[in-house]
Amino acid sequence: MLVVVLIASDCEDPVEVAGRYRILHSFHRRAAVAVDTLRRVALKPWDGDRPQTSRTVLKQDVIAARGLSFNFVTERISAPTDWCSAADNNHYLYVYRHGTIRSMETLLDWGPSGRIPPIPGDIWWKPAGVSSSVLMQGDTAGYCEIAVPRRAIGDPELISRVKYRNPLVHHLVDAVCSVADREDTVAQLLKESSAETLRLLIVDAHTVGRRPRQDERQTLDAATQSRIIEYLSDGLDSEITVDSLARLAQMRVDVFIKAFRQAFHTTPYQFLLDRRIEQAKTLLVTTSLSITEIGTAVGFPNPSHFAATFGRRVGLSPRAYRRSVR
């Protein structure tokens, strides 16, 4: 901390001394704001390497229906705010409902990790057993977190999805919220019917194994595989979703996931992650780019996420790998 002591001599004008004090006081305030801003800007999504930021919940309603738990929350996010979800035994559906999010960084190992802020109506699906971390800032954010026990949808093969849209899901969530403070029979029927419809939609949208139509293509031919590989290679630094890949293949998402696994023996996201790591290894060996620049070039939202993922895949940090091959 910078401390300035003003000492006025007997011959100095007290008014002049007071003026200098006000100027210095203003300087200290601006400096403190600047330091605080820099500290906040430097924050990255929580990865166990620092205390989590505090959260300011303005309103919260929890509703249980048909085995699902609807958690309606409105938060103030004027300061950088951590949203972290643990790897517990529930699946989670997140529906962003209202508010303004100006910046967002994510730390996900189960789906694309983009920086594009969500808009109302965007939906995330996180299967049980995985964790996620989001750092965001804006004005306020209103969302619904829906906890889905494993028993509610059985134990099928699940598909993670990030920032997709389904107007019916949004409508059902709004319907449940509209009767959050009511316990009458009509309200209870609306909650139960909306929750059951939502449960069926979750099974339909996020599980593999539905019986396909007879006229629906079930495999990826060589030409489609080539288009997918080219699309992924050209977009290593961009946000690529399962939905966009399914559109490229002209398939439903669940059919595409199964066909992709048959063709490439892995999931789309793991395939993309492997290509990003391989490209990062090439850049570490053949260029003088910094670790941060390489992480950005291959699509990682921040250096810590890049280093952690690279370390898990390669067994060495990016810096150690560069030293070992040079």
UniProtKB/TrEMBL annotation:
What domain of life is recorded for the organism?
Answer: Bacteria
UniProt GO molecular function? DNA-binding transcription factor activity; sequence-specific DNA binding
Asked if the Swiss-Prot or TrEMBL record annotates the protein with the keyword Metal-binding, the reply is no
Q: Read off the InterPro entries from this record.
A: AraC_XylS_family_regulators, Homeodomain-like_sf, HTH_AraC, HTH_AraC-typ_CS, Tscrpt_reg_AraC-type_HTH
The answer, when asked if DNA-binding is one of the entry's keywords, is: yes
Ranges for domain HTH araC/xylS-type come to: 226-324
This chain belongs to the protein called AraC family transcriptional regulator
* Phylogenetic placement of the source organism: Bacteria, Bacillati, Actinomycetota, Actinomycetes, Mycobacteriales
Supply the gene name: melR
